[in-house]
Structure formats: C-alpha cells, structure tokens
From TrEMBL:
Keywords: Nucleus. InterPro entries: BUD31. The keyword Transmembrane does not apply. This is Similar to G10 protein. Residues 201-234 are annotated as: Disordered. It is found in: Nucleus. It comes from Cyanidioschyzon merolae (strain NIES-3377 / 10D) (Unicellular red alga). Its main location: nucleus.
Length: 234
C-alpha cells in the first residue's frame, strides 16, 4: 500500500485543511508497518490490531470533517478517492445504530452467514439459551472480542453517551476487560460506557499519544503479544 505522503506528493490535495491530520496519519501508518513486519501468521486473531488501526485512522478524519468541520469537503472527497479515508465506514458512523461501528467486517461478512459479529449485540442483551447456560466456556465467549475484528462491543447502547450523545469508542481486545460475566445487565452497560470513554483516542489523548495497545506491541515496549494476552480466550 502506498504511503499517504507519497500519494499527496504525487497528487496534491485541493487545500491544506488536512494538515491537522498529518501526525495522526503518520502514526497509524508507522504502527501498521511495524505490525506487518512482525506478523508471522495470518490467523484472524492476529489481525485484530489492524482493524483497530484502521478504525483510529478513520475516526480522526471523521471528527475533523463532521464534528470539528476543519477538514474541507473537497479534501475529504480527495482522501476517500485515494483511499486514505474509508468513505464507506465513515458513512456508517453517521447512521443511528452504527455510530461507533468498529469495522465494516463486523456487519458484512457475518451477515452473509445469517449472523452478525458478537460485538454488534449490546452487552446487556447477551444471553445464553438454557441448554448452553451450564457451559462456562460458552458464557465466557459471549463477552470475548469478536473473532472477526477484535472488538468486544461497538453498539450505540454501550458506546454512545445517552445524554451528551457523544460517541465514545468501541471497546477493543487490548482495552482492560472487567469481569463482564459477574455483572448484571445494567452494570454491564454502565461499565461499558466508562470503558469506552477511555478507549476513545481522539478525545482523551494529545497528538503524540500512542495508539493504545497497538503501538506498544509495535514499539516492543510491552513484550506482550496479542496471542499471549488472549491465550485465555481459546
Ligand atoms: Zn465491533
């Protein structure tokens, strides 16, 4: 994939309203490259960080265009045209019910199999059938990250503040996970909103802040691979 800087050097953007995005795009690209260099297997679980980087990259573009309105319409169209922005994902975020959607994969590939990713079900509504209730591993799976995207929940119910309507973040595999199984449905919703607020990169961090979880793996500072952190989910 071409670097966004190579694209903008060859095909100049219509104006410079994108300049506030430069550091963020550099950081996402750097983390993505580091991840791809280190990756040794193509198992779905090991691709989770890529879904998160893709989300983070597009979320700031969305914020700049549709909330802060500092990114011009022409430059936004340019970013979509050259695939620096994912126009389809961003269009979903403007629809009720999809405002914190982690990835288009969570609603596309799975719906073809007449099912959707588990992260699209609000935490308080996840219940097992009577037969499955006795099986603890089955119960635990209800609160695991989606095997497709690595997202635990990205529903409006869990990830949008009902009063301010502020979209918080999805809760990702590498965010700290509380003991969802031990909670009542109402507690799950309240806890999810608190966690989602911390997970939201653009509202809690400065320009130099690392992308949570993903970059620590890339920089090698944690020494805690995605596979080992999630060995408990197998
Ligand atoms: Zn999701």
């Amino acid at each position: 994939m071409l670097s966004w800087r190579a694209i903008t050097a060859s095909f100049p953007p219509p104006d410079d309203s994108w300049s506030g995005l430069a550091m963020h795009l550099d950081r996402c690209e750097q983390v993505r490259h580091q991840f791809l260099e280190q990756r040794t297997t193509s198992s779905e679980r090991l691709l989770w960080p890529l879904h998160r980087i893709h989300y983070e990259q597009n979320r700031l573009i969305y914020e700049k265009r549709f909330r802060e309105r500092t990114l011009s319409r022409a430059t936004y169209a340019y970013l979509v045209r050259y695939r620096i922005a994912d126009g389809d994902l961003i269009a979903k975020w403007r629809r009720r019910g999809y405002r914190a959607l982690c990835s288009l994969w969570a609603i596309s590939r799975c719906t073809a199999a007449r099912s959707h990713a588990i992260c699209r079900v609000p935490l308080r509504k996840r219940r097992l059938s009577e037969g499955a209730r006795a099986a603890t591993p089955a119960l635990r799976r209800l609160f695991h990250p989606s095997s497709v995207t690595g997202c635990v929940t990205c529903t409006d119910d869990d990830c949008v503040d009902p009063r301010s309507k502020q979209v918080l973040g999805p809760i990702w595999f590498d965010d700290v996970q509380p003991d969802w199984e031990a909670m009542t449905p109402a507690q799950r919703t309240a806890t999810a909103r608190k966690l989602a607020r911390k997970s939201a990169l653009w509202s809690t961090s400065g320009d130099n802040a690392p992308i949570p979880g993903v970059s620590s793996r890339g920089a090698g500072s944690g020494g805690d691979s995605v596979a080992s952190r999630h060995a408990q989910y197998r």
